[in-house]
Design goal:
alpha+beta, Pectate Lyase C-like, 4-stranded antiparallel beta sheet
Length: 176
């Protein structure tokens, strides 16, 4: 009963354009499948064990959200922002991640792989590698000049030269 009430309240907030009211909430173990959360703001929100199948999250903010054990099958995350988000044990079958920001996330280990290295987390999803706030394809990363890498951040070239072989080995061993 309580779950249905929270679902209804959330749906009304979204329909009335009050998406910012969803910040800092606990929606763990809820069923939101099929809802349109496009442009919503879910900063610091708990979604553990939540069902989001067939849901639209385009252009949505999920900073610091916890999605551990959530179900995102057939979900659209195009242009979403997942900074500092936890995806452990999450189901992402048939999910669209085009133009999605995965800065500093903990991946599910299957679709989203995370290497926690000093200074930057490295997130690998498909043929894309996100290091810190920069996301490029594998080929782009490994074809950048030293000058290009050095302009990305202070100490970036030193860091890249130290970790690029580890990143390359990891990518080649886990790529889809």
């Amino acid at each position: 009963m309580f779950n249905n009430l929270k679902y209804s309240v959330c749906k009304v907030l979204i329909q009335r354009g009050l998406r910012e009211a969803l910040i800092d909430r606990d929606f763990s173990e809820f069923n939101f499948s099929g809802l349109d959360f496009m442009d919503a703001d879910f900063r610091n929100t708990d979604f553990k064990n939540t069902d989001f199948r067939n849901t639209d999250f385009r252009n949505t903010n999920f900073w610091n959200a916890d999605f551990m054990d959530a179900d995102f099958r057939n979900t659209d995350f195009m242009d979403a922002d997942f900074r500092n988000t936890d995806f452990r044990n999450t189901d992402f079958r048939n999910t669209d991640f085009r133009n999605t920001n995965f800065w500093n996330v903990i991946g599910d280990g299957l679709k989203i792989k995370t290497l926690t290295l000093p200074k930057y987390k490295v997130v690998i999803i498909g043929d894309k590698i996100q290091i810190g706030c920069k996301k490029y394809t594998f080929n782009e990363w490994f074809n950048f000049t030293d000058e290009h890498i050095s302009k990305m951040d202070e100490g970036a070239l030193w860091w890249w030269n130290k970790w690029k072989e580890v990143i390359k080995l990891t990518y080649n061993n886990i790529k889809d």
